[in-house]
Structure formats: structure tokens, C-alpha cells
Amino acid sequence: MNSHLNPAPTMARTQRMVVPKFYDGMPFFSKETRRRERLRDGPLFSSFFFAGFEASTTRNVRREWIDQIEATEHDRQVDEDYARLREAGLLAAREAIRWPLVDRAGRLDFSSARPFVQAAKRHGIQVVWDLFHYGYPEDLDPFSDAFVQRFAAYCGAAAELVAEHHVGPGPAYFTPVNEPSFLAWAGGEAGRFSPHLTGRGPELKVALIRAAIAGIDAIRAVMPEARMINADPLCRVVPPHDHVDPHAHANDFNNRAVFESWDMLCGRTRPELGGSRRHLDIVGVNYYWTNQWEIGHEERPLAEDDPRRWPFGRLLRQVWRRYGGEFVVSETSHIGDMRPVWLRTLADECETLIDEGIPLRGVCLYPILGMPEWHDQTVWTRMGLWDLEPDAGQLRRVPHEPMFAALREAQRLERKFDDARRFASNFDVGAIGERIVASTR
Questions:
Q1: Could you report the per-residue pLDDT of 182-229, keeping only the tens digit for each?
Q2: Residue 21: inside a domain, yes or no?
Q3: CA dist., res. 69 & res. 77, Å (int)
């Protein structure tokens, strides 16, 4: 309680009136009034729920080139895809500018990106521009200074392209490096993605953060008000069932390793990289049903009824307490028939967090379309709102009706924000507090 903010603790008893206590600098009105006041800032975008188009563009474990935007025909159907988003009430999207397609030996050609930028403007879709989704120009060494320099130059040029077409509402949004922690493992430790290394994961993570910081600086040199959503997986590990004592590896992973990329971005660790809280900006949490597992069984997620599994809300509170500020769920989904179950549970947990006043500003349903598996492009996974079915030479978008029904239920959160904004327009808590204090002087 910030009691020192109250300049007049009480009025004369003969007036039989007490000046309200203060809560975070505001008069202490009812719990419901304070809740609505906290909600009035609303989501980052025009809708709380938004879509994400899977954009991995790299070489997989077989050293085969994969481009998920091309594989799902999103590049051919972008106008139709954006129109479907609006019909579903999803008014924003995570979308990629594919660095390996743009940067050819240092020469930048944005012809592959322009259709997406222009379609977003036509359809009024707000976009988080993903600039590095695992893949990079193949003539570059990710540990080199040239990698950082080329990435910064590309980010600045991408910002110029976005600025040319950006009309709002609000600032432009970017994810400079998607999931540096995962890429450091997949590319530097497990050899599954480029650069297909083992034993160099920590070193690759530092290199990726160095590039991200340079990229953020280059973007803001062009668009000073641009916001960053730094997306990384939120994971948790548990000791084996028969391990009753504190487990050093689990504790280190859960309390340090999982936060390492965000810590470097904000300058908490490795300050020589130049990170700051402004570089970190909006924390983007990527979370799937696979993100909690037992040590030694990394490919086997904890069962939903495993008592060692933490609720998602508990994990998100941990992130917010560590960094403060706004954050979003930047990726989340399940597969097959579990999709609607996952979304309903997620929406319930998000609603609880929002009611607590935690600044969760949006949830990205990612991927919004079914997709081929990274390491076997002949195997398709049913995810998102639309399954993809071959039909007359193209991939037809087939709505998954149970997921749509779950989304319509979850969109009650949109109405929560709308109600709060209407309430705030008619009930200015700050102004009322000023009048109350003034009346006591």
C-alpha cells in the first residue's frame, strides 16, 4: 500500500467522511473498478487472439531445404488467408520476412516479402514481422562479425520496407530473432538445423543474442517507436519420479537456462553484448504441450495429469515477476483433437491472469494452419484453425470446427477488454481521485 501518496489521511470527523486510501497511486475504489482500470490499456493489437503463420526457413536434420511458407502455400494464398483471419476475428498475425530469400551474398531483394506487406495493408491485419526464423544466408558463419553486420543491415532495410507501408493503428512490431534458445540447441547442440553443430549450443546462443541486439538497434534507427516481441520457449523440467532430493540440473535449467536469452537481451547477464530492458521490450512466451518433460526423456512430454506438471498460469507469473512489463503468448497450440481442449484451458488461465492485473497483452495461435513436419515434409500435422487438404492442385483450407467453437468461447476475453474501455471512457478513476484530493485541501 502506497500510503505516502495520500496527502490528507482523513477529513474532520465532524464531516463524517474519510478520504479514500490509495492503490498504486489511485483512489481505493472497489476491486471491480480497479480491475477494469487495469484492463483499459487492452491488447497490443485490435484483437487479443491473433494468428501465426509457420515460417521456418532452413535446412533440416537431413540437410534438406525447408520453407514452410511455401510448403503451406501461404505465399500463394496470402490474400485469402488474411481475409479468413478477419472473418474469424483475428486481426493481427505473426508473419515472416525470410532472410535467406532476401539476402543473396549481401545484396538485398525484398520481392519475396512485398506481397505480404501489401496484403496486410489491404486487409487491415496488424503484423509482427519475424525477421530470422531459424534460417540465414548460407554463405554466412553465425559466429562471425560479418553475420552480425549483415543481419543488422538486413533488419534496417526490412524496417524501411515496413515503414513505407505501415499505417497503424499503433507502432510496428518485430521479432528480430525467433527462439534463440531453441535454435542454439537445435543448430548448435543437437545438429538438427543449420549450422548442424554439436557441443556449441551456449556459444551459438550468445552469437544469436549479439545479432538480435544489433538488429534491434538497426530497426529503431529507422522506426524509433517500433516495438520488439522477443519470442523464446518457456520450458520446465522435472527430476525422475524416484528422485526426492533437490535436483541440481533441474533447478539450474528452470531458474537460469530457460531465461538465459531474455536475460542477455535485457543486460542482466553478459552486459558486454549491449542489451537493455528496452532491447528486451515485450517478452514473447512460446509454449506447447511438449514444453514440460522429465530429465532424460526430452522427447516425451509430461502427461496432462502428471502432478509434476505446472499450470501454464504459474509459469507465466514466473516470467512476469522476473521481467515486469508487457508480455504475450507468442506461440501456442496442440495437435489433432486436443486443439480445442488446449485452447479452452489456456483461455481460462489467461482470464485469471488478466483479472489479477498481470499485463498479458495477447495470445498467438501458432501455427494457424496445418503444416508438414520439419524433418519429414511428407508427414502433415493437423494444427491450428485450418487443416490443409490437396484439392485441384492447391492446398484447401478446411476449418476445424471444434477449434473454431473453442475460439468463439475464448473470445469472451475480447469482450472483457471492450467492456473495460467503455467503462473507462465514462469513469475516469484518475480524474475522480484528483477531485477527491483537491476537495480536502
A1: 999 999 999 999 999 999 999 999 999 999 999 999 999 999 999 999
A2: no
A3: 10
CA–CA distance, 331 with 366 (Å, rounded to integer): 5
269-275 own/partner pairs: CB under 8 Å, 24+ apart: 270/206, 270/209, 273/206, 273/209, 273/210, 273/213, 274/213, 275/209, 275/213
* Cα gap 71→395, rounded to integer Å: 9
Question: Is residue 9 assigned to a domain?
Answer: no
Q: Which segments in the chain show pLDDT lower than 70?
A: 1-40, 244-246, 420-441
Task: With CA atoms as reference, report the closest residue to 170 among 213, 127, 115.
Answer: 127
Cell numbers representing residue 370 in the block: 496445418
Distance CA 429, CA 37 (A): 7
Share in percent of the chain as helix, strand, coil (round to 5): 45, 20, 40
The structural domain count of the chain equals 1
SS3 182: helix
| 26 CB-near residues (< 8 Å, 6+ apart) | 34, 37, 429, 430, 433
CATH number at residue 122: 3.20.20.80
Domain-located, residue 76: yes
Q: Rounded to two decimals, what is the model's pTM?
A: 0.87
Decide: 143 and 198 in contact? Cβ < 8 Å: no
Query: Which burial class, exposed, middle or buried, applies to 440 when counting CB atoms under 10 A from its CB (0-12, 13-18, 19+)?
Result: middle
**pLDDT by residue (tens digit) across 286-297?**
999 999 999 989
* Grid cell locating 64: 534438406
Euclidean distance between CA atoms 328 and 390, whole angstroms: 34
Query: 214-252 as b/e, with b when 16 or more CB fall inside 10 Å?
Result: bbbebbbebbeebbbbbbbbbbbbbbeeeeeeebeebee
Task: Determine, yes or no, domain membership for 439.
Answer: no
Chain centre distance of CA 360: 10
> 169 burial class (0-12, 13-18, 19+ CB within 10 angstroms)?
exposed
Sign, Cα dihedral of 169, 175, 179, 183: positive
Cβ atoms within 10 Å of 161's Cβ, excluding its own: 18
To the nearest 10°, report the CA torsion of 301, 302, 303, 307: -170
Distance of CA 441 to the CA centre of its chain: 47
Boundaries of domain holding 80 = 49-410
The radius of gyration of the chain from alpha carbons, rounded to an integer in Å, stands at 23
Cβ(40)–Cβ(423) below 8 Å: yes
